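anyone seen this seq b4? input:
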Amino acid sequence: MSSKPSIPKGTRDFSTEEMLKREYIFETIKKVFRLYGYQPIETPAMENLTTLLGKYGEEGDKLLFRIINSGDFLSSVNDEELLKREPVKLSSKICEKGLRYDLTVPFARYVVQHRNEIVFPFKRYQIQPVWRADKPQKGRYREFFQCDVDVIGSDSLLNEYELIKIIDDIFKRLKIATVIKINNRKVLSGIAGYIGEADRITDITVAIDKLDKIGIEAVNAELSSKGLSAAAITNLQPVLQPSGNTDAKLDKLGKLLSQSETGMKGISELRTLFAYIKNSSLTCDVELDLTLARGLNYYTGAIIEVKSKDVSIGSICGGGRYDNLAGVFGMEGVSGVGISFGADRIYDVLNQLNLFNDIKVSSTEVLLVNFGENETQYALKILDLLRSLGVSTELFPDAVKLKKQMSYADSKKIPYIIIAGEDEIKNNSITIKNMSSGEQRKMPLKDLDLFVKGEIKKTK
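predicted toks r here
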């Protein structure tokens, strides 16, 4: 007996209705990206492991899906190595490629590889799936889409400001109330130096990035397990949670980090960015969050994270400034900044808030009823006419009972039915039924374009 077919954990099938909703998200995001002058690229699903490893930190490397070499992949492994069963060492010998973990590292590789074809600053967007060998749970999948927008080849903080405007614009169009949290990795480096643990910046950022998920006590326990002294952990607490508005927080932080050149540079960058924001007309909330760390190792400046105000689901967008990523691939001195929209989490937020209600869930606008061979030529003429007018139209393929054809239209939520039977052919007319109201009307075929412009087009 054959087993029931299934898909891997952390992956999903999407129905037609779900795909139409997802495409609404993608199209909304793309429109805004293009509005700000960004252009699309794509990169392969798989990259060489040499491209991916070491860019996401130790935890990120563990979550990479590795692809076993084709052919005799064990030819380079001896029996002793097999018996030791050391997966990390074995994978380095039998795997040369991996599925991409995000879109930023492949983008940096792309920039370096195609540097002679690119005009800088280079503004690109990319919407493709990524894969992470994470534990599947609500809002967290092993295969999911990212919608990235980056600008590389410019140090200007106007780029960070523009990304914040893009975030605001997209979520305003999607009708999701959000809060944008901002911090700076230079400030976190300064804090690490202030508490006497400058060489533990990675351990500190990885731990405090989990603050919202596991709480302050668990974060402190993790910092202790990484070897931070009790005094350093104690000194860290008030630094991460200063009181007052943004200016007050930065003033207090400036006094604490006055001896840190890197920390003061980060504070200066935050002051500039928040000055741009203050003079802007944003609809979302924006706040300085000194606990925001963004665990990825390649961030060097501003870091950004976006959360829904009405649904508890974690980050729905995030990113930051990276100065050294292209340098890893041999192209020094090229700074970039970008953000990534989590399409899957955005979908879940829209779903929970019932914000898909107004979205058209059928791509077909008109269904032509099939009465049989004698009426087919007339129906095909109407079909071609509607499609030439830009109306998505179907002709039911089989001359079955009208009830079945109506049921088909109803299940696909097709808004209009056109009836073209013997009587309509005789009078060179059509009968149109509005499936929502049940109203039927007859009209000359020559008036169909007027109906399209007056009824169908206005609902698009």
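Residues 16-46+104-352 form a domain with the BirA Bifunctional Protein; domain 2 fold (CATH 3.30.930.10). The mean pLDDT is 88. kinda curious what u guys think
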